[in-house]
Amino acid sequence: MLGTCGWSYAEWEDSFYFRKQGKLKQYSSIFPTVEINSTFYALPKPEVVLGWNQYTPQDFIFSAKLPQIITHKKTIDVSKGVEADINQFLEVMRPLISGKKLWCILVQLPPFLKFNNERLESFLSLLPTITNFAMEFRHTSWLRKETFRLLDIYHVAYTIVDEPLLPPEVHITSDIAYFRWHGRGSRPWFNYKYSKEEVEEWVPRVTEVAGKTKRVLGYFNNHFHAYAPENCLQIMQMLGINTEHSDATLRRMNLSRKDRSSSPVETLEIWTGPISDKKVENMLQEFGSGDIIKKAKSIQNKEFSLREDSKRGIAAYIADTTVDIDVERQTIIHYCTLWGSLSLEKKFCPHIVKLFLDIDSRRAVKILSQISSTLDNWKFDNRLAVEFPG
Ligand SMILES: [Zn+2]
After folding, report:
1. Residues of CATH 3.20.20.410 domain(s) within the chain?
2. Angstrom distance (rounded) from CA 273 to CA 163
3. Phi and psi at residue 273, in whole multiples of 5°?
4. Which fold has domain 2-261?
5. What gap in Å lies between CA 181 and CA 204, rounded to an integer?
6. Distance 342 CA to ligand 1 centre (A)
């Protein structure tokens, strides 16, 4: 059963949805499953959960992301009381569980959390059995046989991913299989559309896994510009699990994209004059010494992964940490020990400098001049940005 990560995107109104209202109802008439992402940020209100149950067909299946307080704040550390948090979450989700609609809970670990056998085992051992769980790791240190062995013992699915941080390894550790397609981080924009060939690469893997498990769940997370539903409809077609309705939706999406490609491309800003990398570097001098630029340049490109570039701001993973430049809220959220003191002086650390060096130079110049001209309003917040896309 395949679908997308989330469904409530205003951006999908032009191409995927017929109407603005009743998105979940429309969505669930096309896809058999969806992954709820909003539960990562906050516990849903009881009436919201009832709505999820009510506005979807009887045989529709949900997965839901475990709240970040458990995975990112308490880093699945049993001694910090995560068991109570899990129970509280399951209690809120009860209508979906008793309606047999909640098939899996996704436990996505933060990218900075590295392999820790004891922590994983004590966490897995307290997971209740009323629903399935899938673990998504975001650090390569977890890819080892001890991890797979533990998942196997506790019947927790290994989340098979397509993304920049981890290799697309297939491991089957439970009755269900869980796929997540995040897109492939590309400079300068993180809004990846898989080509047909790239979608096709996954067909044999999904087929193989389907033959070895009782249920396959898979979700596309590349939601910018409604690429996720489009890629999902494509793979459904390739796998032969398409319906007349899903094919019609794909044709309609293709048509609406063709319409739009003839109209002028949306421009973010007009910047006159050539922009060079040198200009960005000169502007960065204001936020640190020349040394810092050298240090930023020594961070390898493969350690940089852009996660979001939108009107709201820019978010990236850089060398085991996160940098979130929130333009709307005029806040930079980042954590590293060096920035502890530098943030107080409103200076950048090499991670932040690296972000500005790696993004599109026009965009960098625009944001840097905004920060510079309204520096007093900006908050330099030395903590991990947990509300991260994906
Ligand atoms: Zn830093």
Report:
1. 2-261
2. 36
3. 90, 155
4. TIM Barrel (3.20.20)
5. 15
6. 9
CB crowding 331-355: b at 16 or more within 10 Å, else e: bbbbbbeebeebbeeebbbbbbbbb
Residues measured by CB to lie within 5 Å of ligand 1, the ion: 336, 339, 349, 351
361-373 vs 277-284: helix axis angle to the nearest 10?
A: 20
CA of 339 to the centre of ligand 1 (A): 5
Average pLDDT of span 360-376: 89
Cβ-based neighbour number of residue 115 at 10 Å = 15
Q: Give the Å distance between the CA of 30 and the centre of ligand 1.
A: 44
Residue 128 CA to ligand 1 centre (angstroms): 38
Compute, in angstroms, the gap from residue 318 CA to the centroid of ligand 1. 9
Q: Does the pTM of the predicted model rise above 0.85?
A: no
Using the mean position of ligand 1's atoms as its centre, give its distance from the Cα of residue 68 in Å.
22
> What is the predicted pLDDT for the residue at 390?
53
For residue 5, how far is its CA from the centre of ligand 1 (angstroms)? 30
pLDDT band at 267 (very low <50, low <70, confident <90, very high): very low
Q: Taking residues 191-206, what's their average pLDDT?
A: 93
